[in-house]
């Protein structure tokens, strides 16, 4: 009973923090980490609930992404998923199976409990998850991140609004924290990072007067995304998602 109360208290505290401190889109990313916090409670309950999700998500800097259709490909992989928000880090296992007709992602807590199952048929996104997660877990954001990582750039760009995904080379330095643009559109970059992977992509806002701070960065350990270890980071949210294939 003590452990149950402890996990519940921590989870509820995280929810209150999100409501008070986080903008709407950031709360959605922060909510993913609650999956792992609540895994202790899942030991006591096998109840689940189902949702039909939106297929368009809001991103930082007034940008937006709508889920693209499925690729005409077949893939199956098991991954270690690491989620870091600020100084907090959590891990879970993921099993992703994709065919030209369906994409399924199952998230499993370290102790073996299923946290969620996502199904996307190219038009509709459906999620089944523990009833304890409620509506705080926004499955559409996780699916959007997967598409930004694995779908070809040419495909992704058709479904982005006010943003464009670009491939960058290892010499590129990213401004991850800066002041707003001045009248002459110069910028004062307070914090930088450099691409240190085999392949890097950055999502930039395309609106007039937008800053040089990327919306998100994606780094791949090899040129084939499906075989690579991948790190996706959102600098302004201090959010990092790492996907490590397990063979």
Structural features, described:
32% of the residues are buried. The chain has 247 residues and is an alpha+beta fold. The radius of gyration is 18 Å and the shape is globular. Helix 1 (2-21) packs antiparallel against helix 2 (24-37). The chain has helices spanning 2-21, 24-37, 39-42, 139-150, 153-157, and strands at 48-53, 56-59, 63-66, 75-85, 88-99, 102-108, 114-120, 125-130, 160-161, 163-168, 173-178, 189-194, 199-205, 216-220, 230-234, 239-246. An 11-stranded antiparallel sheet has the order 1-8-7-6-5-4-16-15-14-13-10. Strands 2-3-9 form a 3-stranded antiparallel sheet, covered by helices on one side. It has a two-stranded antiparallel sheet with strand order 11-12.
Topology of this structure?
Layout: H1 2-21, H2 24-37, H3 39-42, E1 48-53, E2 56-59, E3 63-66, E4 75-85, E5 88-99, E6 102-108, E7 114-120, E8 125-130, H4 139-150, H5 153-157, E9 160-161, E10 163-168, E11 173-178, E12 189-194, E13 199-205, E14 216-220, E15 230-234, E16 239-246
Antiparallel strand pairs: 1-8, 2-3, 3-9, 4-5, 4-16, 5-6, 6-7, 7-8, 10-13, 11-12, 13-14, 14-15, 15-16
Helix pairs in contact: 1-2
